[in-house]
Amino acid sequence: FAEQSEIGSAERLGRHLLAGGDAQGAIEPLAAGADEHIRRGDLRVALGLLLDRDAALSAIGASPSDPRWAQGWALCAFVETQRGRLDEALGWVRSVQAGARRSSWAPALALALFARARVELMRGHLGESRRICEEARRIFADLGDEAGATRCLAWLGIVTMESGDSRGALSFLRQAYDRSERSGDEAGAASALYELGNAERRVGGGERARRLFLRAVALCEKIGLRQGAANAMVGLGEVERAKGDFDGAEHAYAKALSIHETIGSANAAVTRLYLGLARLGRGDYPGAAAIFARTQPELEQSGRRGLLGCVHVEQLPCCAALGD
Fold first, then answer.
1. Burial 123-134 (b: 16+ CB within 10 A, else e)
2. What's the CA gap between 270 and 46, in Å, rounded?
3. Which end of the chain lies in a sparser environment, N or C, as judged by fewer CB atoms within 10 Å?
């Protein structure tokens, strides 16, 4: 990543050129600025820059077949998925798919399909997520995009884990980590470490999971991936909660929640859910009930049915204890 003094320079240049009427010159720095903010987890800012880039393309009269449209829309789909705005994400995916017959749009189509695979999993459609991810993986492989194909491999591990086969997921995720490390893709390696931690935690390897989460936090902080670091902090909280250390769990969740809320990540609601579970574990029924009540409408709005079901189940002991 750029040195701290250079962070934001592309964004500033792009906005300056666009405001000054040089739409053509603004397009590339706006794209570079959006990419920088996506990597750092500044999702709202990234989306604004991508929309500004669309405005610049309109201003220069870019052809409807120009692949730069699809590139931006695919990134919008990815950002909206990360924000938990699943209907909006699917709208961007459909825009890319509408022009998919154009061979020059293949890289954007692969990214858009990967975003859609994420949406389908978040909505509980495991088989559809797997199918779409395999399609995206084939396109990435045909394009020679090793990083994209490896991210799809990791996602297949996540789908396998969510299907109840955490041991099977370990194979996918170890391959994804090894490939990311060999290619120097630190962001991919960090993501794989986090998911390996989740898989190890589910098969009972609590200490192995803790070490993997700590490695993921360290690598994410090194390269500036705030959302990734927050996700791994939640993983650490889960390890502590499983041991009955509710203070340690809440401390980890609180640090993660602060980051997720700052960057506008959909995982803020998930982190609040875990915080509620920690309160429930220590017998703080009023505290847990208040957190679940706040989390429920957020999950309803995003359509994350599996997590919403979890909230409903965990509200039952709260209702029983409080006489509701």
1. bbebebbbebbe
2. 22
3. C
